[in-house]
Design brief:
- This protein folds into 2 domains: 115 residues, no CATH class; 110 residues, Aminopeptidase.
- The two termini are 25 Å apart.
- It is α+β, with helices and mostly antiparallel strands.
- The relative contact order is 0.20.
- Helix 4 crosses helix 5.
């Protein structure tokens, strides 16, 4: 019997099918991931493999966060093909299941993988909803560079709960591509929210949305997000894509984003 695709009360089979077909949602997800891979192009020993219904993107760094497997097919052989590559590299990985790839959840769990949660995959199709947006008085947005790296590392460590080693690896790739722009929202000369936007083949991927704890509950993340949405719409982007935490989803809903899918992720 086919696995019923319901996690955390979410019907993954429905998931905004009125917005895009399953084929389109998978294509959007691939675009989103390929954009992020621009940050890893300069890394030695990087592994990029595409199979029939699966993708592998490894840095070979010893953290699952940087070694991803994406499976979007129900083919039983897909797991065998992926497992052969995992056996070769023997590094921690995170497996994301997309579309009909959800069929593999039970088999992966039986093999020792733990379902850690589901990630909302969301889209904003550029419309006129942000055309009249203006930052609140006293706020400004600046394009950041490597001179802000130490501050960003502190923000990411606090916001995401990562250890120093992971944060140091994030810092290595943060400014690795000219197509990736990190923006900071400033108040009184201090960064009160930050976000990365990656421009790849006509779509914009939104990553690393973070607001320091001391500056949360003031609407700073919303101010920065709306600014970025308006900016890239003005530059001609037709769609913006992101994956959200469960806690962050309410912000994106409020700003007019729509959920394309909920993608389960597993690690050992």
């Amino acid at each position: 019997m086919a696995l019923v695709a319901v996690f955390q009360g979410k019907d993954l089979g429905y998931c905004a099918s009125v917005i895009a077909s399953q084929e389109d949602r998978i294509a959007f997800f691939k675009q989103f991931l390929d954009g992020f891979q621009l940050l890893f192009n300069a890394i030695e020993n990087r592994v990029v493999e595409d199979g029939d219904g699966w993708l592998i993107r490894f840095t070979e760094w010893p953290y699952a966060l940087f070694n991803r497997v994406f499976i979007h097919t129900a083919r039983p052989q897909a797991l065998t093909e992926v497992d052969a590559i995992l056996e070769k590299h023997k590094i921690p990985v995170q497996i994301n299941l997309v579309g009909s790839g959800l069929e593999h959840t039970k088999v992966l769990q039986d093999a020792g993988y733990i379902l850690r949660g589901t990630t909302p995959f969301m889209i904003w199709m550029s419309d006129d909803s942000q055309d009249d947006f203006e930052l609140r008085d006293g706020l400004s947005v600046k394009l950041l560079d490597a001179s802000s790296l130490d501050v960003l590392k502190l923000i990411y460590k606090e916001s995401f709960g990562f250890g120093d080693a992971v944060i140091d690896l994030m810092a290595r790739i943060l400014f690795a591509s000219p197509l990736a722009a990190t923006y900071g929202l400033f108040k009184d000369g201090e960064i009160v929210s930050a976000v990365m936007a990656i421009d790849y083949e006509g779509h914009i991927g939104i990553w690393n949305m973070a607001t320091p704890i001391a500056h949360q509950k003031h609407g700073y993340g919303e101010q920065l997000l709306r600014h970025v949405m308006k900016r890239y719409k003005g530059l001609g982007a037709e769609k913006l894509l992101l994956t959200s935490s469960s806690a962050g989803k309410a912000l994106y809903d409020k700003c007019g984003w729509q959920t394309l899918d909920y993608t389960p992720y597993l690690t050992k």
